[in-house]
Amino acid sequence: MKKIGSITLSERKGLMLEDRFIIADLHLGLEGVLESRGIAIPSLQVERIISEVEGIVAEFNPEELVVAGDLKHEFSRNLPEEWKDVRKFVERISGEVRLRVVRGNHDNFLQSILSKYNIDFEDSVKIGEFYVVHGHRDTDREKLIIGHEHPSIKIRHGGGLYSFRAFLHAVNNEKDVWVIPHFSPVLPGYNVIESGFISPVMSPFSPEDVEVYAIEDGVYFMGTLKILSELM
């Protein structure tokens, strides 16, 4: 855990702000999507995600759990596997903590599932001075918490290449943005040292504006993207 101002970064792949714990990019139902495309893998993700969220609730006792977009995976429709996994997640977690869901670019048709549980499907959630959005669309809000990026870093050390999920904190004269790592245990991250950003929210930032906090057994400040790029 690492506390920076009012925000607490957790190695549990999310952050705490004012009694709300925020995670992003669960991509439930991914296995069903892959199966529909001829790739069969065991459906293990949802139980692991539920277990990890239950650990968050036990440790932090948040007033709300906010999912900052991409609760589900498939763009075009709700596949049977997604219905099953999203319903299982919502039924288990909403019994332990109030659940709020922000719209992500993968969440088309999610409202038809959430409405059965009286859970609002929101474009943004305001917590203190910050707005929680997914990050796939630009916004004029100045203080933001986003997902969407799936940020990770790869570092060479002692002849090996090590990959870490990461939080990003981007600050300049225009915006103050925290980027949350992806919560899905299956999907890979994007190496922001080499790949840059996919969110339009991040377009105003230069590498020297972006601090990186890697996740291992804790949360560790790694320097700015500019410094890390020079080291690589």
User: For the report, how would you describe the main beta sheet?
Assistant: 9 strands, mixed
The CATH topology, please?
Answer: Purple Acid Phosphatase, chain A, domain 2
Q: What percent of residues adopt helix (DSSP H or I)?
A: 10-25%
Low-confidence stretches: none
* β-strand amount: 25-35%
Total helices: the number is: 6
Give the total of domains: 1
Named CATH architecture:
4-Layer Sandwich
The tally of strands reads 16
What is the averaged pLDDT score?
89
Write the layout of secondary structure elements.
Layout (H helix, E strand, L loop, with lengths): L1 E3 L2 E4 L3 E4 L2 E4 L6 H7 L8 H16 L3 E4 L12 H14 L4 E5 L8 H4 L6 E2 L2 E3 L2 E3 L10 E4 L4 E7 L2 E12 L4 E4 L10 E2 H4 L14 E6 L3 E6 H7 L1
Parallel strand pairs: 4-5, 5-6, 6-7, 9-10, 10-13, 11-14
Antiparallel strand pairs: 1-2, 2-3, 3-4, 8-9, 11-12, 12-13, 12-15, 15-16
Helix pairs in contact: 2-3
Written account of the structure:
The chain has 232 residues and is α/β, with parallel strands linked by helices. Helices cover 22% and strands 31% of the residues. It has helices spanning 30-36, 45-60, 80-93, 111-114, 192-195, 225-231; strands at residues 2-4, 7-10, 14-17, 20-23, 64-67, 98-102, 121-122, 125-127, 130-132, 143-146, 151-157, 160-171, 176-179, 190-191, 210-215, 219-224. The strands form 2 sheets. Strands 8, 9, 10, 11, 12, 13, 14, 15 and 16 form a 9-stranded mixed sheet that branches. The chain has a 7-stranded mixed sheet with strand order 1-2-3-4-5-6-7, with helices on one face. The chain is globular.
